[in-house]
Each structure stands twice: as structure tokens, then as C-alpha cells.
Amino acid sequence: MRRPFIAGNWKLNNTIAETEELVSALLPRVGAVEDVDIVIAPSFLSLQAAVDSTRGSAVSVYAQNMHEKDAGAFTGEVSAPMLAEIDVAGVILGHSERRQYFGETDRALQAKVPRALEAGLVPVLCVGETEEERERGDTERKLRHQVQEGLEKVPVERLPEVVVAYEPIWAIGTGLTATPEQAQDAIAFVRALVQGFDKEAGNQVRILYGGSMKADNAAELLAQPDIDGGLIGGASLDAASFAAIVEAARS
Questions:
Q1: Which of 9, 100, 73 is closest to 46 using CA atoms?
Q2: What is the Cα–Cα distance from 87 to 121, expressed in whole angstroms?
Q3: Sign of the dihedral defined by the CA atoms of residues 105, 106, 110, 114, in that order
Q4: pLDDT tens-digit map of 130-184
Q5: Are 8 and 249 in contact (CB under 8 A)?
Q6: Residue 95 annotated in active site
Q7: Is 116 left (phi over 0), alpha (psi -120 to 50) or beta?
Q8: Interior angle at CA 251, CA 179 and CA 187, nearest 5
Q9: Res. 18 pLDDT band, cuts 50 70 90
Q10: Among 97, 129, 161, 167, which one carries the catalytic annotation?
Q11: Distance CA 115, CA 70 (A)
């Protein structure tokens, strides 16, 4: 059995004070949950406050990005050792917004994913197609390229430690959601791609759905056999909504 995984990507939201306020609203609801991995990913400036506020609870803190190098002339970037030093537990990599707005490439992710693992961080590798690619019938071609590139340099024995998030780009922040069948088909294909590296690793790796998952649609998405959790955007900024999604994952 793969342990459910629910992650809240806060994106460019919440000051340090707002982060502490949201965590204090969240912890009474989910802080003692033992059967779901629960993650929040605040902005870089709020990471330390989030780590301190969640210490001793069931909630882990992830970053939204990192650089593949440990140090150097990379203005504005943050490295894996810097994140690990403040007890950040993982990192979201290759989110569609990073790809779209900041030129994140599959080649950079090929270096970032194994570097995160080496530093003791859980990498969440994001993959997914645009609306145009889906309409052209290119969904599988796009996913194949992203998964194979992103995982190519991960040692086979460490593949099960990677979390993959399938996010149909046309469903992020649009209010559109893939049907449970569409999401299941894509995620089953992603699992088959990981099985192409190693069958048992593909069976063990957790694959999330990210694309307007909310409290009212989480249960039917999470009921699909290959969907192990969710990468939640807007709904993660509300403690009650996020807790409801965690509860859906438990059942």
C-alpha cells in the first residue's frame, strides 16, 4: 500500500505572519494525522517560520524550488544544502509555472531531482501537458519526455523516494479539473513510465494529481487506483478546505 500524500503549494502567497496564522489554523485539524503524509510549501522567506511552527506535528515543510548547484554565482537562487540546514524536508521541482514563467528545463530538472535526494530532500517532480498538447493527442509524448528526462539520473534504488505530480496545465488555476478517468489514465501512464526504469520502483512510487483539486472533488479523484494524493494550489490556502482534502485521503 502506498501511503497517501497531500501537499499544499502556497505559491506567491502569505507573509511570515500570515504563514504562522495559517499553520496555527491547520495544526488542530491535521497536526496529529498519522496515516497521510501532509506537506505545506510556503515561499522561501516563510520556510523557517513554517518549520518552527510545525515542529513535532505531522506536517512537513517543502520548498517550491531549488537550484541544482550547491553554491556559486546564481543570483536569487537557493540550494539544497541551504534548505536541508533549516530542516526543510523536500522540494517541488518543475512546476508548470516554473517552466512557463521562468524557463525551467527538463535538463535542469535532470540535475535537480538527484541533487535533492543526495541532500536528504524529497523531490516532487511535476509533469503535465498543455491544453493544445492534449487536443493534438500529444499528452503521452509530453509525459514520456518529462518523466524520462527528469528521472534519468536518479539511482534505481532511490526511485521510490521520488514523488511525481501529474498536473494538466489546462486545469491549474482555471477551475477546470480533469475527470477522474482522465486523471487516472494519465497517472497510470506515468506509473508505467517509472516501471520502465524498474518495475518494483514503479509500483512503489507515489503519483499525485495536481489541477484544481478541492474538497468537493478530492474523494472521487483519490479513489482512483493509481492516484496517491494531491498537489493542492488555491484550496491549500484555506485550513478547512485543506483539512477536508486530507480527510478524503484518509478514507
A1: 9
A2: 9
A3: positive
A4: 888 988 999 999 999 999 999 999 999 999 999 999 999 888 767 777 899 999 9
A5: no
A6: yes
A7: alpha
A8: 35
A9: very high
A10: 167
A11: 9
- Catalytic residue (choose from 67, 68, 95, 149): 95
The domain made up of 5-250 has a fold known as TIM Barrel (3.20.20)
Nearest to 205, CA basis, from 185, 179, 220, 227: 227
The question of whether 167 is a catalytic residue gets the answer yes
The answer to whether 112 touches 66, Cβ cutoff 8 Å, is yes
- Grid cell, residue 138, equals 500529444
Instruction: For 197-229, write each residue's pLDDT tens digit.
Output: 999 999 999 999 998 899 999 999 999 999 999
Amino acid, single-letter form, for residue 10 = W
What pLDDT score was predicted for residue 203? Answer: 97
At 209 the pLDDT is 95
| Widest CA span in the chain | 48
